Task: structure prediction
Amino acid sequence: MQILDGKALAQNIENKIQKEVEILNKQGITPGLAVILVGGDPASQSYVNMKAKACKRTGIYSITHEMPENIQQESLLQTIAMLNQNPNIDGILVQLPLPKHIDTTAVLEAIAPHKDVDGFHPFNMGRILANLDGFIPATPMGVITLLKHYHITLQGKNVVVVGASNIVGKPLGALFLNENATITLCHIYTQDLAKFTKEADILCVAVGKPNLITKDIVKENAVVVDIGISKLEDGRIVGDVDYPNVSPKCSFITPVPGGVGPMTIASLLQNTLKAAKLRPSKH
Result:
């Protein structure tokens, strides 16, 4: 069993980004990322802080617009419109989830597609499905980058993705399809989950339910990518996979924390750098 070390790979990616940012600086460009945080959800605040620190490490300018929980949707859309117009901001990211009274779809669609570094705009989603270049959501992008780094063959493999969200499951399925894998997307209405997971050469789980995946429903020598993250009452951070019992059966497995999480942030920085390189020249 080999551990897929997302932390070490993310560090390598950040080092490369830092060098590229220095090259852009010489051309008078500082990549800029604007994050919008609505309300005081502790998990969201922690993610936003991690993103800000990563920007600082790599030389990307970042600004966080913190807004109260009860903000009106119109005010939020006005902020996005302002950031769309700001030539120094290359990427705009709205931290999800948003409060119930706000239409998340309307907010995500308001972000200019060329600044949509989260890859959630339908324009970028459509480009992934059509296997065209665009902004890929950070978590799915991080998963594929991690698997390729360890030279894990994707073509022709049976891939099962558990969790069919727009943020992770659906785009991840599309990326595997683009790599010529055979893909099964499972979700809350899937009957007999074990029937599918037992057949998976590569099993990706993104649900947020501790110990959902037990060793009896994992194929021998499978590659297991645990994208879920939960905090237990005793303060431990765990994924969706019963790691101590499942890992001996795997050929490769991601730890939680230290697997997909750092890759998500590294991928977001890669998207921000990409957006900065596409910045319309001032000439």
The mean pLDDT is 96. Residues 103 and 227 are 26 Å apart (CA to CA). Residues 28-112 form a domain with the Rossmann fold fold (CATH 3.40.50.10860).
